[in-house]
Design brief:
single chain, 182 residues, mainly alpha, DNA polymerase, domain 1, two-stranded antiparallel ribbon, 2 strands, 2% strand, disordered N terminus, RAMP, transmembrane
Length: 182
């Protein structure tokens, strides 16, 4: 993973993000003559974070939500989309088939947000997941709760109705004697 950015599951890679200025991860536009980074904002500590932050510095001047959106759209989403398209659409609704893809996407969005020191989850991430649900999972059936059989409902309703008069009678009989014992 030297000249490419490794994705969460380490099985796929993507070429580094390039801005219109020709910037890529092998050159740091925000480095001084010694090679030390001179970012104008705080950034995460990993080398991957420095790549993201350098890109944000070059393209946007800061670690903005626009930069976060750009990185997630070019790094996190393509892997998820491609992996989902490899599945049959009938498999999209089977959690065992999509949970690792979904988890990898969630981890990727969290890592990018953490690198840029943007709180996670945030509105951008939530909107992205809503869009993904609308695109891939809208046809999935939901498990709806149904009413229990009438016999069970009857038993659950009649039990307290019968117990209340018996308890009231017991209290009245105990207090009628006046001694309060027994």
């Amino acid at each position: 993973c030297s000249t490419v950015i490794c994705l969460v599951n380490d099985k796929t890679t993507m070429q580094p993000i390039t801005a219109s200025t020709g910037y890529n991860s092998t050159q740091s536009p925000t480095a001084d003559a010694v090679g030390n980074s001179t970012l104008t904002f705080a950034c995460g500590n990993s080398s991957k974070c420095m790549i993201f932050c350098d890109y944000c510095q070059q393209a946007f001047g800061s670690q903005s939500m626009d930069c976060l959106s750009q990185i997630m759209n070019h790094i996190c989403l393509p892997d998820f989309h491609n992996s989902m398209l490899l599945l049959n659409s009938t498999d999209w609704c089977i959690w065992d088939h999509v949970k690792s893809l979904y988890s990898n996407l969630s981890i990727c969005t969290e890592e990018v947000s953490d690198c840029l020191l943007i709180p996670w989850p945030n509105q951008l991430v939530e909107d992205m997941f809503v869009s993904i649900h609308y695109q891939f999972f809208v046809e999935c059936p939901t498990e709806e709760f149904s009413d229990p059989p009438p016999a069970i409902v009857f038993a659950l309703v009649i039990t307290p109705i019968c117990l209340i008069p018996m308890m009231v009678s017991l209290v009245v009989l105990k207090t009628k004697n006046g001694d309060g014992t027994s």
